[in-house]
Specification:
The protein is 32% helix and 34% strand. The chain has six helices and eleven strands. The N and C termini lie far apart (43 Å).
């Protein structure tokens, strides 16, 4: 077993297992929810879900991408589906930030949002990065983007918001969210369908607002 910390991330998706399976195995579908736009997104999708994936229909995908033993499991749950991503490991869970674990928390919330609210729709994304106190930055994010909390954890807070574009925002910090010490923080916004235009039009305003909150502000994709 690899020298790594184990984790298990789960989300209940209001869509049948067949639809979730397609969204996890067809690259064109995966691109409508996974991650954020950048020059290497298509290569990332292919690396994770095609070249290093071993699907076993109807409900298991083994990922052989360098993080030993990662597995996606789909379990029928009434008319919906429980999606679980698990990684075994021999190290104790010390409660520290884990980039792969928090990545899957984000990805599964994006998957859920896509299938429940925007199936079949393309999307636009905006990712904002910087260094700031997580507690104050999250307070500013929640003030600007009221909506339904979809996930609230030690390092990540996700909101389904009416603007921009009935979208999903994911706020992540490398330090606990209640910390007042500066840490790397990111805000990833996703908007589908008609919301794509709204997010694109709001891009410069959002960049300016973010720059007022953090030091070393960066945008993905840049420009």
């Amino acid at each position: 077993m690899a020298e790594q910390k184990p984790f298990r991330v789960e989300v209940s998706v209001g869509a049948p297992r067949e639809a979730v399976w397609r969204a996890l195995t067809e690259p064109a579908e995966i691109r409508r929810w996974h991650g954020w736009e950048y020059d290497g997104l298509d290569e990332e999708i292919r690396f994770i879900y095609v070249d290093h994936a071993k699907p076993s229909p109807p409900g298991e995908i083994l990922l052989d991408d360098g993080a030993q033993g990662q597995k996606i499991t789909l379990l029928a749950e009434g008319t919906g589906t429980l999606v679980r991503v698990a990684r075994p490991g021999s190290l104790p869970d010390d409660g520290a930030y884990d980039d792969i674990e928090q990545g899957w928390v984000c990805f599964l919330q994006q998957l859920r949002h896509y299938l429940e609210h925007h199936p079949g729709e393309d999307r636009a994304t905006l990712r904002l990065e910087g260094l700031a106190a997580p507690d104050a930055t999250l307070a500013a994010v929640r003030d600007r983007f009221p909506g339904e909390t979809r996930h609230s954890g030690r390092f990540q807070h996700d909101i389904a918001t009416a603007r921009p574009g009935r979208g999903l925002l994911v706020f992540t910090s490398h330090a606990p969210l209640d910390s007042s010490a500066p840490a790397p923080v990111t805000l990833t916004l996703t908007a589908h369908g008609p919301g794509e235009r709204e997010l694109t039009e709001a891009r410069e305003d959002l960049r300016s607002w973010w720059s007022s909150l953090v030091s070393d502000p960066r945008t993905v994709p840049p420009g």
